[in-house]
Amino acid sequence: MERSSSLEKAIRGILITAVLLFFLFPIFWIFLMSFQTNEDILRIPPSLFFEPTLQNYSALLTGKLETAAGSLDIAFMRNLGNSLLLSTFSVLLSLALGVPAAYAFARFKFRLGENIAFTLLSFRFAPPLLVLLPLSLFFKQLGLTDTYIGLIWVYQLICLPLILWIVRGYFEDISPDIENAYRIAGHSWWRTFRRIAIPLARPGIAAAGLLAFIFAWNNFIFALILASASKQPVTVGALAFVTASGIQYGQIAAAIVLSVTPTLLLALYAQRYLVEGLSLGAVKG
Amino acid sequence: MSSLELSNISKGFKSGMVLEDVSLSVKAGEIVVVFGPSGTGKTVLLRIVAGVQEPDAGGITIDGVDMTDASPEARNVGMAFQNFALFPHFSTHDNIASPLTARNVPEGRLKEQVSAIARMLKIDHVLGHAPRELSNGQKQRTALARALIGQPKVLLLDDPLRNVDAKLRYEMRLELPRLLRTFNSAVIYVTQDYKEAMALGDHIAVLRNGRIEQWDTPTNVYRAPVSLDVARLFGDPTINLAPCRLETVGQGSQIHAFGRVSPVSEAYAEATGRDLVAGLRPEHVIVTETNTPGSVEFDLDAVMPVNVRSVLYLRGPAGEEVLATVGESEAARFGRGHRKVWVSFAPDDILLFDAASGQRLAPRVN
Questions:
Q1: Contact yes or no for B73 and A188 at CB 8 A
Q2: Are B27 and B43 in contact, with CB atoms under 8 Å apart?
Q3: What is the pTM of this model?
Q4: Per-residue pLDDT tens for B316-361?
Q5: How far is B354 from chain A, CA to nearest CA, in Å?
Q6: B131 vs A281: CB contact, 8 Å cut-off?
Q7: Under CATH, which number does the domain B2-225 receive?
């Protein structure tokens, strides 16, 4: 690997560029689209040269969409807020429930333990539509339809299994002797959990939390069925741009750019936790 | 008064019993070495004393208080793990200080105590480092400092010298007894190195297959092992063993082993006719270049120098193999082997074991 010829270098460069182009081009294109009018977007052949406009963004921010057929109210900013609220609280609740549960599954052998863990994982196997019909009936009965609490509850189907299984693996990687040593030193179980187990599993908890956040953010179907416009996240809110007078590609593009930004920033921030090594050399391997 | 008392501890896992009916008592300031080959439940025993695992049966008292069901943090025990088990996200200082923070020792006194013990163990220059930046020897000392700093009533050391290099192991073998005495804890020291056991232990408990096979002082374990297994585990090179039978000749008894007939004490007379095994420590084999009364001619096959001693590989008239150890200067006379030598030994140095049970024959005392 050290002495690669210039030909190899060139080929590697070309291949990496190709892969990057393949994955980044759609993002680049949608970024361009968000600054174009609908006419520019629909022009054939498409052109890289156009007069940039901020009208898509201003429409989203003001909530007024001017179309040929007249003015339309859109709740995009509210949807963005909903997304943020739903995803954040779902992940927080999942962490509060899932991290102790993951620890229990990793450390203690109890009756039906494996079965319970697997059942929780199996929530991820079932297509969401399968559970939605009974859920929507339950929610009507319980008065949870179109409430934040109801949605956050349903979002646990997405977040909890993910956090439970990822964090469990991290807990299992920590040598129990490290925790034993802390207990023998005179610390209570609870203190050991907080001061030893949680900090050592932090990269895993961060990774799981981030993934759960992205999955929750990207969810579409639960909110579509179980909530009305005022509680819906951006994924469902984007449907509003499919109007009677045509599809507002420019606004959709701008909406996508705005809605991707939070998860992108979060991923960049959490990156250092994701790459941080877990076992820091305290236990001889 | 005993500081640590284990009574009839038993522990089994799915795969079978690990400890059976183990009783042990350790006085304050005393070092008891639990010795045994791997997989005999030494570590499990320590974990049970520490409270990390529960015994199926039996009881533990520390300083007269029943601790059988107490949680680990309530036992006032210090433990150094074989794999060190340092807290990777704490500095060396905080690792060592952790037993003190549990007791809310004020900051100033905590710092003093940590640096005092760090100086004693020569790790005071790495107190700010993270465990991953330490060498194995420093990790081991950090783990030891952490176990000692709380001045625990009971100190458990799980093969602490296993993962350190030979030089440090040797130093620590000299240093540890002195260090441990200053803390006046009841120490259980687990090892599978018989030299470490002999060097450190006031008493040795030889653990085999979950049972204590012998409980004795190091000298007695070596000189008077209760069984063939114990005799084999102690000593390097291992004890010479030869099958033999006790014969009655006239007034006395004798055995035929290691190429010659040796008289045997009257006290063993009742073993006459049974299959026995005779054991002879290599250092008790006397090798000379000239014929002396009572010696037998052996072939010297090879000479292997081991540090200051040499091991001689000897072959007797009937093909019996015998190992002997001699001092360096003595070994020089034998060159590289391949020659005839004369071998003898004092009959009193022979240990007799029952071939069927493996137990050493107890001389009948009148």
A1: yes
A2: no
A3: 0.80
A4: 888 888 999 988 888 888 887 788 888 888 888 888 898 888 888 8
A5: 43
A6: yes
A7: 3.40.50.300
